[in-house]
Amino acid sequence: MLEALLVMALGAVLLGAALGYAAVRFRVEGDPLVEKIDAILPQTQCGQCGFPGCKPYAQAIAKGEAEINQCPPGGEEGIHKLADLLGREFKPLSAEHGIEKPKSVAIIDEQACIGCTLCIQACPVDAIVGAAKQMHTVVAAQCTGCELCLAPCPVDCIRMEPIQETVDSWKWKYPVIPLRQAA
Amino acid sequence: MSEPVDVDTRDSGALRISVRTAGIMLAFTLVFTALMAGTYKATAPMVAASALAEKLRLIGEVLPAGSYDNNLMADAISLPPTKALGLDDESRLWRARRNGAPAALVLEAAAADGYSGRIGLIVAVGADGRLIALRVTSHKETPGLGDYIDPKKDRNKSKPWITQFANLGFDSVPREKWRVKKDGGHFDQMTGATISARAVTNASGRVLAWTMENRERLFALPADGRYEESKP
Amino acid sequence: MIAKLFRFKGGVKPASHKDESANVPIRVAPLPSKLVIPLRQSARAMARCLVQPGQIVLKGEMIAAAEGPMCTVVHAPTSGTVRSIEPQPVPHPSGLPAPSIVIEPDGEDRWIDRKAFDFRSATSQETRNYLRDCGVVGLGGAGFPSHVKLGPGEKGIETLILNGAECEPWITCDDRLMRERADAILAGASIMRHITGARRVLVGIEDNKPQAIESMRAAVQKLGEPDIDVVAIPTRYPAGGEKQLIRVLTGIEIPYGKLGTHFGVQCFNVGSAAAIHRAIAHGEPLISRVLTLSGNMAHPGNFEVLIGTPVGELLPLAEPRADTNRYLVGGPMMGVVLQSLETPVIKGTNCILAGSPSLFPTPPPEMPCIRCGECAKVCPAELQPFEMYWYSRARIFGKAQEYSLFDCIECGCCSYVCPSRIPLVDYFRFAKGEIWAREKEKAAADLARERYEFRLAREEREKAEKAAKLAAKTAAGREKAAVAIAVAEKPATTPEEDAKKAMIAAALERAKAQKEQAHPENVSDLTPEQQAEIAAIENRRAEIREMAKPHVRQDD
Amino acid sequence: MSIYKDIAWNGLWKQNSILAQLLGLCPLLAVSSTMVNAVSLGLATILVMMLANFAISALRALIPYEIRIPVFVLIIAALVTVVDLAFNAFLHDLYLVLGIFIPLIVTNCIVLARVEAFAAKNGLRASTFDGLMMGIGFVWVIALLGAVREFIGQGTVFSGIEMIFPTLSGIQVLPESYPGFLVAILPPGAFFVLGLLIAGRNWLEARANQRLRDKRLHEQPPPAATAAA
Amino acid sequence: MTTYLFIILGAVLVNNVVFVRILGLCPFMGVSKKLETALGMGAATTFVLTMACGASYIIDRWLLMPNQLEYLRTLSFIVTIAAIVQLTELVIQKTSPLLHQVLGIYLPLITTNCAVLGIPLLNVALRHNFLESLLFGFGSALGFTLALILFAGIRERLEAADVPIHFRGTAIAMITAGVMSLAFMGFAGLDKFK
Amino acid sequence: MNNSPYSLKPASVRSVMLRVLLALLPGIAVYVWFFGAAILVQIALASITALIAEAAMLKLRGKPVAMFLGDGSALVTAWLIALTFPPIAPWWVTVVGVLAAIVIAKHLYGGLGQNPFNPAMVAFALMIVAYPQLMSQWPAVGFTDFAPQLNAIFGPRQLDAITMATPLDALRTALHTADARATVAGVLGSNATFGNIGGKGWEWIAAAYCLGGAYLLQQRIITWHLPAAFLGALLLVSGGFSLVDAERFAAPSFHIFTGGAMLAAFFIVTDPVSGATTPKGKLIFAAGAALLTWIIRSFGAYPDGIAFAVLLMNIAAPLIDIHTQPPVFGHKRQDGDST
Ligand SMILES: Cc1cc2nc3c(=O)[nH]c(=O)nc-3n(C[C@H](O)[C@H](O)[C@H](O)COP(=O)(O)O)c2cc1C
Ligand SMILES: Cc1cc2nc3c(=O)[nH]c(=O)nc-3n(C[C@H](O)[C@H](O)[C@H](O)COP(=O)(O)O)c2cc1C
Ligand SMILES: Cc1cc2nc3c(=O)[nH]c(=O)nc-3n(C[C@H](O)[C@H](O)[C@H](O)COP(=O)(O)O)c2cc1C
Ligand SMILES: Cc1cc2nc3c(=O)[nH]c(=O)nc-3n(C[C@H](O)[C@H](O)[C@H](O)CO)c2cc1C
Ligand code: SF4
Ligand code: SF4
Ligand code: SF4
Ligand code: SF4
Ligand code: FES
């Protein structure tokens, strides 16, 4: 019994000391994971995920506090990428947080706009230009389609329009209608 | 330049933390090792007893308990590695006596030529030169094919294959007939798995022959003695 | 000099079907009732329209100007009236309309003044600019601006290759052109040689066109320039592919992402050479081309057609048969289905094929790939199409790219031989499109992130500024405070980080400056009253922002 | 109460160590050739998991982060050795069958995984309960696996039960002439049957999910986008 | 010399840890989705397992056997292994954050890779000497790595296969592992020649 | 409507598979000559089972049954299973084997073209592990009586009279178990029924398979790489060892002309779906299969190692492919400067 204690005590002291030392010596700061997750998120900044923006959501995922299927603009594709990155299982988009919609941009009805600037303040990416009491316009190329400007508009003059396909943005479609999957 | 200072604080911190973690680790280790060692001490007799019981159970399978009256465990000798028995290691041999007279020998043996390697056996040979019984203690024969040599796996529960050796000696089955039928001998085998049967049969024949030859010397050795091959 | 021929791996030999249209001389197509000229004539860029509806234009008059280095000028193919400028169907697989100028010919075909261009006394840059102004783009199919291709590139051009291979079945326009206008082609080649300073010129022609080879050889003799060789190459699709032809004639393999000029070679279609000759020698911009009408037609042949002629008006010339169910623009291996008979001929249109169910049957449904490797055997790019297909089909594009998806030239050989009838090329086009779209999305996301972070920084700064303003109520004090706060916020950092931060800060400043510049555009012509009002609103806005902030924060 | 319901549901199904987390596979596959072996090992595992969760939850405040893993492992190992010795002393036949797998409970990933993921963060009662439920989750899967393999492999159930209850004996379900299907008892069979079990779970989950979705769709029209405050 | 070769070959192929000894399955299933991660995990395990075999031999021969403390084997081995793993983890975390992130939760779980304890215990049972122990550990780890990367190669391809929906992911991976272990049964009987 | 290309070469999966079946016919004919007509019963049994299983799985998975059933791939699998199993195996052994091949090895992976393992070889390995005895009982060569064979397949088995260990099995049993004095010559030479090359009968069957293989080569359904590498590697390794110790290692001619070697060389390692696909990969794949076959034949517990060897190489095939990708056009030599 005594030998047992002695032998184990010897081991314990050695290992404990080594580990304690290593833990300090090799400490790393920062978390590159958040950046990687953020790079996958679509940066729509819409808050549908339940966080105030893409970055906070990324932080929450990295900490394991959020599921990977809460970002509707990212869609299935985004979830696949997150699952790949994090080694988690893919799961379908959580319906609680919304559904995947075609990409849209905001359009301001220029007749109705009263120039209140509320939409400017709501837009997370400064995609609306104009000045007070002036008609406002959305810079379509910068609009992420987050819909955050819709609610604040007092005269409801902003609507979302799906982005039209042109010869430039056209893509070849998936070649065949896939055969029906087994249930 | 803050670099060197930084390293310094780190190192002294590391030392402190090392000591602390080592201390905690030590504490935990002592407590749990004590717990374990205590259990070990407490169960040791029972563990030893069950190991003994296991041995006795095996022996009991080949040698009926009522057929002897001495303490088998006390009346054992050790065997050196013996080719005839297929043994590469030291082993034990137990001697059963009845009213002081030799009754039987119980020994371990092996057949090296099983289908998938070594087949371990335990054999009891009566003082009259008959094989009382034998059992397979370990084997790697193909499950479902060659493993019928182990009565636990034998599908024929009423008369397992291995029981056909019981109470046979060279007087009833001559040495040259101590083979499987396929080789022109006396013993049955399972078609499709002759090799396993052949290995066991041949090994038992060798064991029997060896014991017949050495039986007097084996019984004569003092308890805890050591048998040495008598080479001319 | 007898050129040593090289081999390219892979390739297929579909039935050639050249005889149907090759034996009739080129005829000039009649003037159509309208001309539709897409503003995008050179594959890479859209020209800027210069005319207005109702305007009268002459034949060869510039109607759209070049924008940017990749663009070429667009000309009116005949004299007439501009009817409209509106989206019209164009020969594009999407079938989507694109902005075009519609001209109603007046039937007089009045030319503008035409003047030959003295390229011998001009610098090569000037000649190339002239070609751009003549709207010369490649007639081989891709429609790449020739003036760009004639530039010196990295290493200059040592070998000039004329592509007369015409490897696609059915098409014979280059064949006829070489038989009938070999002199013009060679004159063009000689001009190109002058521009680029190429040492030698090789003309590659598939050996199933003996008359064309004959005629070109004769013309070479006549021209009498040294180091021009007409080389007969084995007939195998896609020997006319630029990379394959260069490989066969010179042994050089041009990888994906590299241009011919990296290796000192450049390849032009024979038609392009003829067009260059026409532009230089006669001062005629590129407003017509020769194209083949063939397939399920009673009288197939080649026609000189004005750019912009609606296909529907051409077809009667060759009399499609009754069971024609669709038309293809281009050959059967690489062409696209014509979506509407209104679609005009553009500079890259080399063939209109009439298809019938028996000629080009709809393939049976696709079976799974059995990895038989046929496709890999015939792939001229030496790819493993089935691996690319395997991952493209499952939308695992990264893996598809690992198998060199982008090296695929979409020649269609793999689809041609696949026993499982898999439309492999379609999968590759799909995968490429998705990858590009994803890159675009990624760029958009990065932009959005940058703008969002900029906005956060600005809000932060504005808050700081406001605080500073409260403290020191002068404009100068405000500036300083902002800087001080910005500095105080940063902990000590390495010089490297500082540099980076400085760069970012500079970028943000620039962005801000741009934004501020943009602002006045919206508000430039305002009255002082209005401006005062704006200032007031700005203040109010700042206050609202302050008020709104806690709400936002509480949300999370 | 609902936290206990959660724990139970997680252990038994949702986070089931094997079907969902794929942990603890080695003993699972190696010892499940008969149902009796499987259940015995499972019971030993439950015991260890409860003890370990209990001990670590109790001591969690004392364990520094840097050496948590060695300490956890130390505690688990000590407990396992205790169980091992106990088996050896009191259930010797079974001990012979389960062989090296009792010491290997130490490295059964679930034990450490649960200790880290749950016991190190939760209270005594919840942790012990979690150990129990995770253990039961392990047991029912391993028992099912054992039963299927034994049945396919040799047409019996409960064979070997005499090792634990000498008065009972296994049941030959299929006729004696059933030739057996040896592969089922060998390692490949273990993988195959477990693969089928997991597919079965996927099927059940997918069905439940579909139902939930249908219900959601009926209940509330498309969820409105969360607007700014 | 040849005995050493046979030890390694035997451990890699004939008695492959994963397919024949059925050890180390959790990381085998968990870290085999991608070839890269599989390789990383294999390398880490190889390092740890070889070290563990060496360390456990020393502990066993110098500390436990002389003092008749065999019953402490499991305890002392596993604690040592845990410490080795944690040291490795800390070092990797510092030197190669990418690898660390990729190996994620599985690095600490090397401790609970049964093989890491099972192989040292087998070393004791097989009465290997120091060199043999090291080689056996190394060979077993190679066998593990081999199994892992072969499996990952197949899984990467399977990712794109039209597998029936309920079998996607782990279910078909299990079945694949089953066929693989069936294939490795072909080596049965070869260990006679060790 | 489809996209380009619009004209396609006439070819189909069905015609490929039918030609493979055609190529098997000579081998089957010779087989019947030496071992009796039982094999025809087995082929029929396997084919029917395969088609039923295939149809059922297609239906379950919601695929168009008629289109896929006609592709003939299930028949190729079925025939190969029948040809590799003993002709007098009980009917249920064949049926279970085919079911395992079609259901587990093929359709669980997504059906035609997606299976990473050779279905026929999965069936063989599974059944020989499960029923080693039934799977190694072959009728004696020349014993072609139909009635007892049929009885063996469908009825109560009375086999001793008609079975005989195959040359491989006999060799393995003698060399690697009891008898330390056994030699190759002793085993193969002592038994009058074993021919001089691969065992009487076996060598002719092998030759007929070789003929079928030549047809496949001529039809460009298989490339030379696989058979050449397989036979070449088998020749080399067995030749080398039998030179060193002819008493314990059989001659290369024996290895090539016995068991399933020739069938494997032309019909099994050539399975395009589960094998390596690059030219270099094919060489490695087939040579590896040959090497493993020889190792398992010479040292392993199972009499013929082809199924295991092929499965083992199937496992390695994805990695082999990844590491033997041929260079892409333009990325060969000159490409030092970028990407
Ligand atoms: C990163 C990634 C993204 C994917 N995205 C999609 C997707 O957006 N839509 C989809 O149907 N399948 C997607 N897949 C593929 C699916 O997992 C699955 O393989 C595919 O849907 C099967 O297609 P099938 O139903 O035509 O057989 C994706 C796979 C990966 C790895
Ligand atoms: C995979 C396999 C495993 C075998 N296992 C055994 C076995 O464990 N024991 C045995 O005696 N024969 C076994 N055999 C059978 C032997 O190879 C040999 O055929 C048989 O022992 C000869 O017996 P017979 O003469 O009664 O047919 C096995 C055969 C195979 C193919
Ligand atoms: C598969 C394939 C086949 C082609 N065949 C021809 C051809 O037969 N003749 C031709 O002039 N261009 C052909 N091209 C286009 C050439 O690659 C190249 O774009 C053209 O010769 C460049 O000349 P241009 O700029 O004058 O058009 C083909 C391209 C591809 C991808
Ligand atoms: C040349 C050739 C060889 C084949 N060999 C096999 C084989 O060995 N085993 C098999 O199950 N199928 C074989 N097939 C059929 C087919 O590829 C197989 O059913 C697929 O593996 C099923 O996806 C072969 C097909 C061809 C064309
Ligand atoms: S839902 Fe997606 S896009 Fe919207 S804020 Fe969250 S992460 Fe960003
Ligand atoms: S304009 Fe509206 S929809 Fe577009 S980004 Fe700004 S707030 Fe979002
Ligand atoms: S030709 Fe078709 S079936 Fe053959 S490998 Fe290529 S894609 Fe697959
Ligand atoms: S289309 Fe692409 S992949 Fe197919 S043969 Fe042509 S180059 Fe190769
Ligand atoms: S139980 Fe063995 S590795 Fe997890």
Keywords:
heterohexamer; C: 556 residues; alpha/beta; Rossmann fold; six-stranded mixed sheet; four-stranded antiparallel sheet; 17 strands; globular; disordered C terminus; F: 339 residues; mainly alpha; 2 domains; two-stranded antiparallel sheet; 15 helices; 2 strands; 1% strand; binds flavin mononucleotide; binds riboflavin; binds iron/sulfur cluster; binds FE2/S2 (inorganic) cluster
Tell me about this structure.
With 183 residues, chain A is mainly alpha-helical. Chain A is built from five helices and four strands; from the N terminus they run ααααβαβββ. In chain A, the strands form two sheets. A two-stranded antiparallel sheet of chain A has the order 1-4. A two-stranded antiparallel sheet of chain A has the order 2-3. In chain A, a hairpin with a 7-residue loop joins strand 2 and strand 3. Chain A starts with a helix and ends in a 21-residue tail after the last strand. The C terminus of chain A is likely disordered. Chain C has 556 residues and is of the alpha/beta class. In chain C, helix 5 crosses helix 6 and helix 14 crosses helix 15. Chain D is mainly alpha-helical and 229 residues long. In chain D, 66% of the residues lie in helices and 2% in strands. Chain D has a two-stranded antiparallel ribbon with strand order 1-2. Chain D is flat, with a radius of gyration of 21 Å. Chain F has two domains: 153 residues, no CATH class; 123 residues, no CATH class. Chain F is built from 15 helices and two strands. In chain F, helix 11 packs parallel to helix 14. The radius of gyration of chain F is 21 Å and the shape is globular. The interface between C and F is large, with 62 and 44 residues. The complex binds flavin mononucleotide (3 copies), riboflavin, iron/sulfur cluster (SF4) (4 copies) and FE2/S2 (inorganic) cluster. One flavin mononucleotide sits at the interface of chains A and C.
Summarize the SSE layout with pairings.
The complex is a heterohexamer of chains A (183), B (232), C (556), D (229), E (194) and F (339).
Chain A: H1 2-25, H2 32-40, H3 54-62, H4 75-86, E1 104-108, H5 118-122, E2 128-129, E3 137-138, E4 158-162
Antiparallel strand pairs in A: 1-4, 2-3
Helix pairs in contact in A: 2-3
Chain E: H1 2-14, H2 25-30, H3 35-64, H4 73-95, H5 97-103, H6 114-125, H7 130-158, H8 170-184
Chain F: H1 13-35, H2 38-60, H3 65-69, H4 73-84, H5 91-106, H6 119-130, E1 138-139, H7 146-154, E2 163-164, H8 167-176, H9 184-190, H10 202-218, H11 225-244, H12 252-257, H13 261-268, H14 279-299, H15 306-323
Antiparallel strand pairs in F: 1-2
Helix pairs in contact in F: 1-4, 1-10, 2-4, 2-5, 4-5, 4-6, 5-6, 6-15, 10-13, 11-13, 11-14, 14-15
Bound molecules: flavin mononucleotide (FMN) (3 copies), riboflavin, iron/sulfur cluster (SF4) (4 copies) and FE2/S2 (inorganic) cluster.
